[in-house]
Write a structure and sequence with these properties.
By secondary structure, the chain is α+β, with helices and mostly antiparallel strands. The longest helix is centred in the N-terminal third of the chain and has 57 residues. 60% of the residues lie in helices and 12% in strands. The protein is built from eight helices and seven strands. It has a five-stranded mixed sheet. A two-stranded antiparallel ribbon has the order 1-3.
């Protein structure tokens, strides 16, 4: 009886050690897998266990990881090729469109009949639409190349916002828009990538100019929140819910949304921030909170 108990104890100890080693190896697999997926390294999963089934499992996972790497590489190469193709196409389109616009302007200076003038205006409108679409195409190609790495430092948001708004002075004047700017006196410092934040502000100011019925408001609050708002009676709450979608265009307005807001959203998120759009009483509000 005592021998049976001793054998049973040995078996229990053996099983306990076996389970401990199996759990250790599973943790190793999980840790290595997460590390490889996060860091995008070329390393493979390795374990200290000699268990045949665990070794087979590890080998199968390594095979799938290699396939995943190949697919990711193909995707990245394809993305780059697509970006270069779109960029080249947009550049190729710009040249003839610029020439057409110039000739249309020259024709406007000629003495034309009422019918000819109407045709010239139609050609001008359609040319402007093509120019707008070309710019969107170019913006889309740039959005494909958004870098995931941030060069973050501490910057004053007040100064960046003031400089960016100031750079749009001539455009505001040309569009007869008088922006209402409210920037708090308190200096707001954020750990951000300055280049990306400038681009965020530029895209949102451009959006205000595009959709504004009669002016726009830009406010930096003491909390650090930046709010862009403008009256946009041609929008609606359902449209605003999709306004950050790269592939969504606004059909009930003269000009569609392009990809500027989609790019802004990606850049805000790359800076660890948050962006939301609200629509209240015919006014579009876009609020940004940076990290």
């Amino acid at each position: 009886m005592s021998i049976f108990i001793i054998v049973l104890i040995v078996i229990v100890i053996y099983c306990a050690i076996k389970i401990f080693l199996l759990r250790k190896s599973i943790k190793e697999i999980r840790f290595n897998l997460n590390r490889i997926l996060v860091s995008n390294t070329n390393n493979l999963i390795s374990i200290s266990s000699t268990d045949r089934e665990l070794i087979n499992l590890t080998n199968d996972l390594n095979v799938e990881l290699e396939k995943l790497r190949e697919e990711r590489l193909q995707y990245e190469n394809g993305n780059q090729e697509l970006k270069h193709s779109i960029t080249n196409i947009s550049h190729d389109l710009r040249t003839p469109l610029t020439a057409i616009s110039c000739y249309v302007d020259l024709l406007k200076e000629e003495i034309l009949t009422k019918k000819q003038g109407r045709y010239i205006n139609i050609i001008n409108d359609k040319t402007n639409e093509l120019v707008n679409l070309t710019e969107q195409l170019f913006d889309y190609s740039k959005s494909l190349d958004l870098e995931k790495k941030n060069n973050k430092k501490s910057y004053c948001i007040n100064e960046i916002l003031e400089e960016t708004v100031g750079s749009y002075y001539n455009i505001f004047k040309k569009k007869d828009i008088i922006p209402n700017i409210k920037i708090c006196e308190k200096k707001i410092y954020k750990n951000i990538d300055k280049t990306k934040v400038i681009r965020i502000f530029e895209n949102l100011i451009s959006n205000c100019i595009r959709y504004s019925d009669n002016g726009c408001n830009i406010e930096l609050k003491e909390s650090g929140k930046v709010v862009f708002s403008n009256k946009a009676s041609k929008l609606d709450s359902m449209t605003v819910k999709k306004i950050f979608d790269r592939y969504y265009t606004i059909e009930n307005i003269d000009k569609n949304s392009g990809v500027g807001l989609s790019i802004a959203k990606q850049l805000v998120e790359l800076n660890g921030g948050n962006i939301v759009a609200k629509y209240l009483k015919d006014v579009l509000y876009i609020e940004i909170e940076l990290e």
